[in-house]
From TrEMBL, chain A:
Pfam families: COX4_pro. One of its GO terms (cellular component) is plasma membrane. The keyword Nucleotide-binding does not apply. This is Cytochrome c oxidase subunit 4.
From TrEMBL, chain B:
Keywords: Cell membrane, Membrane, Transmembrane, Transmembrane helix. The chain crosses the membrane at residues 28-49, 69-89, 101-122, 142-164, 184-204. This is Cytochrome c oxidase subunit 3. The lineage of its organism: Bacteria, Bacillati, Bacillota, Bacilli, Bacillales. It is found in: Cell membrane. Gene3D superfamilies: Cytochrome c oxidase, subunit III, four-helix bundle. InterPro entries: Cyt_c/ubiquinol_Oxase_su3, Cyt_c_oxidase-like_su3, Cyt_c_oxidase_su3-like_sf, Cyt_c_oxidase_su3_a-hlx, Ubiquinol_oxase_su3_dom.
TrEMBL record, chain C:
It is a multi-pass membrane protein. This is Cytochrome c oxidase subunit 1. Keywords: Cell membrane, Copper, Electron transport, Heme, Iron, Membrane, Metal-binding, Oxidoreductase, Respiratory chain, Translocase, Transmembrane, Transmembrane helix, Transport. Cytochrome c oxidase is the component of the respiratory chain that catalyzes the reduction of oxygen to water. Subunits 1-3 form the functional core of the enzyme complex. CO I is the catalytic subunit of the enzyme. Electrons originating in cytochrome c are transferred via the copper A center of subunit 2 and heme A of subunit 1 to the bimetallic center formed by heme A3 and copper B. PROSITE patterns: COX1, COX1_CUB. GO terms for molecular function: cytochrome-c oxidase activity; heme binding; metal ion binding; oxidoreductase activity. It comes from Virgibacillus dokdonensis. GO terms for biological process: electron transport coupled proton transport; oxidative phosphorylation; respiratory electron transport chain. Residues 10-522 form the Cytochrome oxidase subunit I profile domain. The chain crosses the membrane at residues 30-49, 69-90, 111-132, 152-180, 192-219, 239-263, 275-296, 308-333, 345-367, 379-401, 422-442, 462-484, 554-572, 578-596. It comes from the Bacteria.
Length: 104, 207, 617
C-alpha cells in the first residue's frame, strides 16, 4: 500500500477528470428526471407508451447511479456487481410473481 | 498496521477506503448487504404493485399524488447523491475539510427531503383521510415509502454520528472506509427513490 | 493471551468470556449449544405429535395444543435447530479450511449468534405466556392474522430477530471467503464445505429479505391495523404465500447445501481418494442455488395460479434433480475403488445416500403439478420433506459433528456409542417416515389432530410412532456420548483421520489465532499434497510476525437483549399502552449499543512474535 501514493499531480488530474464525468452523469440524471415528470405532467402520451418509457428512463438513471456514482464500472467491483445482479435476479422474480400471479 | 494515525497527503494511498483488510471487508460487506436490500425493496414494490388498485372505495393514487412536491423531493435527493460524490472526491484528494463540508450539505439535503416526506404524509392523512389503515393500497403505499424514509433516517443518523465523531481527528485509514460505505448506502437510497417516484408517483398518476 | 488467562479464573470469567467472545471457534460452540438445545426441544414436540397419533381418536393432548406442537416443531427445527447447527459447523470449520485467522467481521459474527439466540428464546417464551403460535410453521394468512392469542406475535418478532442474525452471519461468511483465503487458496482449490458455505450464504442474502418483508406485513396487520391480508379492504392473502415461499424454498437449500458440503468432506477422507468430479460438484452446487430461486410456487400448485405458472414451476423443480443427481453419482464414484474406513461419520454419510435419494424421488413426484393435487397436504408430503431434511440435513449434521468433534472440542467421540446411535436412528427414521408415504397415499391429511378407526391408518401410525422412539433413544445416546467423551474421551492429535484439508494441519483444538503463519496452498486438498510430497506439513506463506486479533465485546449481547425487550413491547402494546415503554427501553438499549460501537474505536490487539514463538506447535 505504499507504492500508490497520491501526491503526484497525475492522480489529482485523474480524480478531477473522474469528477467531471460524475457531473455529466448528474446532469443527464436531472435531464431524465425532468423528461419523466413532464411526460406525466403534460399527459403527452398514452399510458401504453408512457409506462414503459418511464421505466426505461428509471433504469438508465439507476445504471448511472450504480456504474458512475457507486463506481461499479471501476476495477475491483466484480463481486459487488455479481451480488447486485444476483439481487436483481431475485428481485425480478419476486416482482414478476407479485404482479402476475396474485390476482386472477 | 499504523492505521490509527492521521494521514498526511504524502502517505495517502489512492483508495483509502480499501487500503486495509478491514476497509476491504467493510466495502464488500456493504455491497453485499445492498444486494440483499435489493430483494427487500423488491418485495415491498411487488406488494405495492399487487395492491395498488385495492383502494376499497377510498382515494386512489391518481386522486392524491401531487407531482410538484415529489419533483422537489426528487431534486433534493438526487442532488444529495451528487454532493456525497463530491465528498468522496475530496476524500481521495485527502481534503478533510472540504469532504466534511460536502457531507454537511448532503445531510442538509437529506433533512430537507425528510421534511417534505413528513409534510406529504401529513397532507394525505388530514386532507384526504388517506391512512395506513384505510385500504390495502394505503397500507402498501405507506409501508413502501415509509421503509424508504426509514432508510433515509438511518442514513442521516449514520452520517451525523460519523461527522461528529471524526470532526476533530481528520481522515485516516480507520475511518475512511466508514465514510465510503456511508456514501454507497446513500446512493442506494437514491436508487430506491428513483424507482419510487417512477413506479409509485408517476405511474400512479398515469393510472 | 487474555483468553487463556480467562479460562483459569473460574466459572464467572468463563461465562463472561463466552458472552463477549468474537472468536469464530467459540461462537461455533455457542451455535452448537443453542442449536442443540432447540433441537431437543423440537424433538420433544415431535414426540408429543407422534404420541398423540399412536392410536385412532387419541386424546393425549388437546386439539389446540396439538396445533401449537406441530407449528413449533416445524418452526423450531428449521429456524432454531438445523440452521444454527449448520452455522455452528460453518463457523468452526470454514475459516480453518480456507486458512484464515478469523472471519471478516468477528463482532458481527457474535451479534449474529446472539440475535438468533434471543429470537429463539423470545419465540419459545410464548409457551408460558398464553399459548404458542398455532397456524403452522408457514403461518398462512388469514388464519395467522385471525389467531386470537399472542402466539403469532411471538412467531413474527422471534423470527424477525433471529432472521436478522442469520442474514448478518451470511454476509460475514461471504466477505470472509472473498477476502481472507490463504495465499494460493484459489476458488477452485477451496474445499467443498467452504464452497457450500459460500453458496448457502448467497442464498441467505437473497432469500431472507423476502421473509423480513413478509413478517413485517403480518406484524403490521396484526398489531397496527393495516390491510395487506384483509380482503374486506382490498388485501390479498396470496401475497403472504408468495413472500413466504420466495424465502421458504431457498431456505431448504440453505439447509441442504451445507450438509452436501459435509458429505463431500467426509466421503473423500474416509475413502482415501480425492473427491470425484470436484468441478462438477462446485457447479452443481451453484446450479442448485440458482434453480432454487425459481421453484417456490411448487408449494402453491393448488392455490390456483393457473396452468402456465404451474407448468413453469413444475419443470424448474424437476430440473433440480439433475445437479442433485450429479452430486449423488460423484459421491458414489468417490468411494468406488477407494480404501474405505467405516466409522460413525462415514456411517452417517453412507446412510444419507439412499435416504436422501428416496426423498429426492418423491420430490420429483411432487413436482408434477397434476399429481400434486393428490399429494397436497397429505402425509405423503410430510414423508417427503422429512426424508430430505432428516435424511439429508440431520444426517449431515451428525456426520459433521462426528467428523469435526475432535477439531472443535479436542476429544474424539466414542465410536461404539456413535455406531449404535447411528443404527438406532437410521432404523427409527425409516420406520417413522417410510410408512407415512403410504398413509398419505391412503388419504391421511397432515396437521390433523386425530384420525378415525378402521380406515387402514391404525397400523401405519402405530409403526410410525415406534420409529420416533428409536430416534429419541439415538439422540439420547448421542448426548451420553458427548458427556462420556468430555470426561473420558481420547485426546486426538492434530490430524486423527489422516485428513486432506487445511483444518487438519493445525492442533486440535486450534489455538485462538488458528495459524501461527498462514499456510501456502499448492492445490486442492492442500494437506494431502504435502503428505504425498513427503513433507507432511504445510509450508508457511509468510515469516513469523505479529498477529492482529479483534477485541471481545459485550455489545452484541446487549444489542440483542435490547431487541428482545423491544420484542415484548411490540407484542403486548396492543393490550396496554404502558408496554410502549418496553419498546423505548429495548430500542434504547439496542440503538445505544450501536452508537457506542460506532463512536468507540476498536483497533484490536496484536500477539507479538515472541509470544507466538513461545507457544508450542
Amino acid at each position: 500500500m505504499t507504492d500508490n501514493t497520491n501526491t503526484n499531480s497525475f492522480q489529482k488530474q485523474k480524480n478531477k477528470e473522474e469528477m467531471k464525468k460524475q457531473l455529466i452523469t448528474f446532469a443527464l440524471m436531472i435531464g431524465f428526471t425532468i423528461v419523466a415528470f413532464s411526460i406525466v405532467a403534460t399527459n403527452a402520451m398514452d399510458k401504453m407508451f408512457a409506462v414503459p418509457l418511464l421505466l426505461i428512463l428509471a433504469l438508465i438513471q439507476v445504471g448511472f447511479q450504480f456504474y458512475y456514482f457507486m463506481h461499479m464500472k471501476d476495477r475491483g467491483h466484480e463481486f459487488p456487481a455479481m451480488m447486485i445482479y444476483g439481487g436483481v435476479f431475485a428481485a425480478l422474480l419476486t416482482i414478476a410473481a407479485l404482479v402476475a400471479i396474485v390476482w386472477w | 498496521m499504523s492505521h490509527d494515525h492521521s494521514l498526511n497527503p504524502e502517505t495517502m494511498p489512492q483508495e483509502p477506503e480499501k487500503a486495509t483488510l478491514e476497509g476491504k471487508n467493510k466495502f464488500l460487506g456493504l455491497w453485499f448487504f445492498l444486494g440483499g436490500e435489493t430483494v427487500l425493496f423488491a418485495s415491498l414494490f411487488g406488494t405495492y404493485l399487487a395492491l395498488r388498485n385495492s383502494t376499497a372505495g377510498g382515494p386512489s393514487g391518481q386522486d392524491i399524488f401531487g407531482l410538484e412536491l415529489v419533483f422537489l423531493m426528487t431534486m433534493l435527493l438526487l442532488t444529495s447523491s451528487l454532493t456525497s460524490v463530491y465528498a468522496m472526491y475530496h476524500m481521495k484528494n485527502n481534503d478533510f475539510k472540504k469532504m466534511h463540508l460536502w457531507l454537511g450539505i448532503t445531510a442538509f439535503l437529506g433533512i430537507g427531503f425528510l421534511a417534505c416526506e413528513i409534510y406529504e404524509f401529513y397532507h394525505y392523512i388530514t386532507d384526504f383521510g388517506f391512512t395506513f389503515r384505510s385500504s390495502a393500497f394505503g397500507s402498501a403505499f405507506y409501508t413502501l415509502v415509509g421503509f424508504h424514509g426509514g432508510h433515509v433516517v438511518f442514513g442521516l443518523s449514520w452520517l451525523i454520528a460519523l461527522m461528529v465523531r471524526n470532526a476533530k481527528r481528520g481522515l485516516n485509514l480507520y475511518n475512511a472506509p466508514k465514510y465510503y460505505t456511508f456514501s454507497l448506502y446513500w446512493h442506494f437510497i437514491d436508487v430506491v427513490w428513483v424507482f419510487i417516484f417512477t413506479v409509485v408517483y408517476l405511474m400512479g398518476k398515469v393510472g | 493471551m487474555s483468553i487463556a488467562a480467562a479460562q483459569k479464573k473460574g466459572f464467572g470469567a468463563f461465562l463472561w468470556d463466552y458472552l463477549t467472545t468474537v472468536d469464530h471457534k467459540k461462537i461455533a460452540h455457542l451455535y452448537l449449544i443453542g442449536g442443540g438445545f432447540f433441537f431437543i426441544l423440537g424433538g420433544l414436540e415431535a414426540m408429543f405429535i407422534r404420541i398423540q397419533l399412536i392410536a385412532p381418536e387419541n386424546d393425549f393432548i388437546s386439539a389446540g395444543l396439538y396445533n401449537e406442537m406441530f407449528t413449533m416443531h416445524g418452526t423450531t427445527m428449521i429456524f432454531l435447530a438445523a440452521m444454527p447447527l449448520l452455522l455452528g459447523l460453518m463457523n468452526a470449520v470454514m475459516p480453518l479450511q480456507i486458512g484464515a485467522r478469523d472471519v471478516a467481521f468477528p463482532f458481527l459474527n457474535s451479534l449474529g449468534f446472539w440475535l438468533f439466540m434471543f429470537g429463539g428464546i423470545l419465540l419459545n417464551c410464548s409457551w408460558f405466556l398464553g399459548g404458542a403460535p398455532d397456524s403452522g410453521w408457514t403461518a398462512y394468512t388469514p388464519l395467522s392474522v385471525e389467531s386470537p392469542t399472542h402466539g403469532i406475535d411471538f412467531y413474527v418478532l422471534g423470527l424477525q430477530i433471529s432472521g436478522a442474525g442469520t442474514l448478518i452471519g451470511g454476509i460475514n461468511f461471504l466477505v470472509t471467503i472473498v477476502t481472507m483465503r490463504a495465499p494460493g487458496m484459489t476458488y477452485m482449490r477451496m474445499p467443498l464445505f467452504s464452497w457450500t458455505t459460500f453458496v448457502t450464504s448467497t442464498l441467505i442474502l437473497f432469500a431472507f429479505p423476502a421473509l423480513t418483508v413478509g413478517l413485517f406485513l403480518l406484524m403490521f396487520d396484526r398489531m397496527f391495523g393495516s390491510a395487506f391480508f384483509n380482503v374486506a379492504l382490498g388485501g390479498n392473502s396470496v401475497i403472504w404465500q408468495h413472500l413466504f415461499w420466495i424465502f421458504g424454498h431457498p431456505e431448504v437449500y440453505i439447509l441442504i447445501l451445507p450438509a452436501f458440503g459435509v458429505f463431500s468432506e467426509v466421503i473423500p477422507t474416509f475413502s482415501k481418494k480425492r473427491l470425484f468430479g470436484y468441478t462438477a460438484m462446485v457447479f452443481a452446487t451453484i446450479l442448485i442455488a440458482f434453480l432454487g430461486f425459481m421453484v417456490w410456487a411448487h408449494h402453491m400448485f393448488t392455490v390456483g395460479l393457473g396452468p402456465v405458472a404451474n407448468a413453469i414451476f413444475a419443470i424448474a423443480t424437476m430440473a433440480i434433480a439433475v445437479p442433485t443427481g450429479i452430486k449423488i453419482f460423484n459421491w458414489l464414484a468417490t468411494m468406488w475403488g477407494g480404501s474405505i474406513t467405516i466409522n460413525s461419520a462415514m456411517l452417517w454419510a453412507l446412510g444419507f445416500i439412499p435416504s436422501f435419494t428416496i426423498g429426492g424421488m418423491t420430490g420429483v413426484m411432487l413436482a408434477s403439478a397434476v399429481a400434486d393435487y393428490q399429494y397436497h397436504d397429505s402425509y405423503f408430503v410430510v414423508a417427503h420433506f422429512h426424508y430430505v431434511i432428516v435424511g439429508g440435513v440431520v444426517f449431515g449434521i451428525f456426520a459433521g459433528l462426528h467428523y469435526w468433534w475432535p477439531k472443535m472440542f479436542g476429544r474424539i467421540l466414542n465410536e461404539k456409542l456413535g455406531k449404535i446411535g447411528f443404527w438406532l436412528f437410521f432404523i427409527g427414521f425409516h420406520l417413522t417416515f417410510f410408512i407415512q408415504h403410504f398413509l398419505g397415499l391412503m388419504g391421511m391429511p397432515r396437521r390433523y389432530w386425530v384420525f378415525l378407526e378402521d380406515q387402514g391408518l391404525d397400523t401405519g401410525n402405530f409403526i410410525s410412532t415406534i420409529g420416533t422412539f428409536l430416534m429419541a433413544i439415538a439422540a439420547t445416546i448421542f448426548l451420553i456420548n458427548i458427556i462420556y467423551t468430555a470426561v473420558k474421551g481420547e485426546k486426538p492429535a492434530g490430524d486423527p483421520y489422516d485428513g486432506r484439508t487445511l483444518e487438519w494441519a493445525i492442533p486440535s483444538p486450534p489455538p485462538y489465532y488458528n495459524f501461527k503463519q498462514l499456510p501456502l496452498v499448492r492445490g486442492l486438498d492442500p494437506l494431502w499434497i504435502e503428505k504425498m510430497d513427503g513433507k507432511g506439513k504445510m509450508t508457511p506463506a509468510e515469516p513469523l510476525g505479529d498477529v492482529h486479533m479483534p477485541n471481545g465485546s459485550i455489545l452484541p449481547f446487549a444489542m440483542s437483549l435490547g431487541f428482545f425487550v423491544a420484542g415484548f413491547g411490540f407484542i403486548y402494546q396492543t393490550d396496554h399502552q404502558a408496554w410502549n415503554l418496553a419498546i423505548f427501553v429495548g430500542m434504547g438499549i439496542a440503538l445505544g449499543s450501536m452508537l457506542i460501537r460506532s463512536l468507540k474505536d476498536d483497533h484490536g490487539y496484536h500477539i507479538s512474535k515472541e509470544e507466538l514463538e513461545r507457544e508450542a506447535d
